[in-house]
Amino acid sequence: MGEAPAFIVDDLQNQIGFENGFGSKFKGCKTATTIGDKTYVIGGNDESTLPVEVRIFDKATGNWVTPIVLGSKPNSCKGLSAISLNDDRILIVKKGSAPDDCILFLEVDTWFVREQKKIRGTEVVAWSKGVRGDAEKPVVISGPSGVGKGTLISMLMKEFPSMFGFSVSHTTRAPRGMEKDGVHYHFTEQSIMEKEIKDGKFVEYASVHGNLYGTSIEAVEVVTDAGKRCILDIDVQGARSVRASSLEAILIFVCPPSMEELETRLRSRRTETEEQILNRLQNAEVEMKQGKSSGIFDHILYNDNLDDCYESLKKLLGIDGAAAATQISAPQGIDLPADHSVSKMDNKIIINYGTPELEKTSKSLIVLDVSSLKGGAPGRTRGLDVYATDSFSDDLNGINQPS
Ligand SMILES: Nc1nc2c(ncn2[C@@H]2O[C@H](COP(=O)(O)OP(=O)(O)O)[C@@H](O)[C@H]2O)c(=O)[nH]1
Ligand SMILES: Nc1ncnc2c1ncn2[C@@H]1O[C@H](COP(=O)(O)OP(=O)(O)O)[C@@H](O)[C@H]1O
User: Fold this and answer.
1) Residues taking part in catalysis
2) Which EC number(s) does the record attach to this protein (predicted)?
3) CATH class entry, domain 139-302
4) Closest protein CA for atom 7 of ligand 1
5) Ligand 1 mean position to 288 CA, how many Å?
């Protein structure tokens, strides 16, 4: 049954005293997995409130490396099991943890991690929380200045405060009258933002209407860590970067009914100078062309009547009518018992928490189907399929039925 442990390296075990999580009982919250030449040692102190640490033993050089760790680091726990998936991420099962906090992915060679390694010139790993199904895709809203993006987003956040969270961008533009630092934007300076971009702190950034705007990795993570679906209000260049990234967002472009109406809305807002209005209207022509024809966007919405447009937005997000209630209450966590062992077969991770006697009589296996994983750092890893079953069969396909 299952796969052989990903690794058991005696000298490593002697050096740092961890045990592999595969089917074994162990004291500390430490485990290790080897991918290629690198052994990832993951763990902290038993029952500690400190975050789980990650160290890498590079067999090629014989050196230990402490990587930059992105993503929200899980706290230590009663124990960890680790399994390498596709050599680019390690699935971690936290024993005895809360249902919404027990399946994690440590990305070691995904697109996002490779990009970050390139920018930072050092070892990088990134945590991403695992969630069931296809929920929580981030939502990108783009469109010309004054079309109503902010208005639509405010309506969504007001109606579904526990479902959506706004990604607070950084910008070098000056705050408008009512805007608060850290709420509407992180207002910053050009030189500081350029340094942070160089340090790899941004998912995307662009120069828009003469100012620098960008989405930090942290801005997305703060929202996903709160268990909410992330909304990004970004321009077309930023949308293009997100489309190419691992975020797997739904991209929506909002159009005005006419350029005249766009100008009316922009002027009636009274937040820009005449020069800024003219600049934004000029840019709007280009944005409209790109938005409608570039193939970046999944959906185009026309914001003529505000209420109609808002209803269309909810519909394409699957949160209109009864669907809204279902989605809000859908459980995202996975209830795992404290004491269990973990093994892997093809694209299925089998979590066994029964005694041999118990196995015969009741459900004692949880199967995590990881064949359709999507997303990942800096967002969540979606697409986990989870179901309970009662026994192994010779052919694992035999337990492929959700129960
Ligand atoms: N690429 C990118 N664009 C952003 C970001 N934040 C805001 N923007 C875009 O910058 C443009 C100007 O935003 P803002 O100054 O708030 O003006 P408004 O859209 O007219 O309210 C809009 O197209 C926003 O969608 C960001 O983090 N990244
Ligand atoms: N469908 C609409 N009809 C009329 N006015 C609208 C509509 N949608 C938004 N507005 C108004 O247009 C102005 C610009 O909207 P805003 O949300 O700030 O645009 P954006 O965030 O795209 O720059 C605001 O004063 C807003 O109240």
Assistant:
1) 176, 269, 280
2) 2.7.4.8
3) alpha beta
4) 234
5) 15
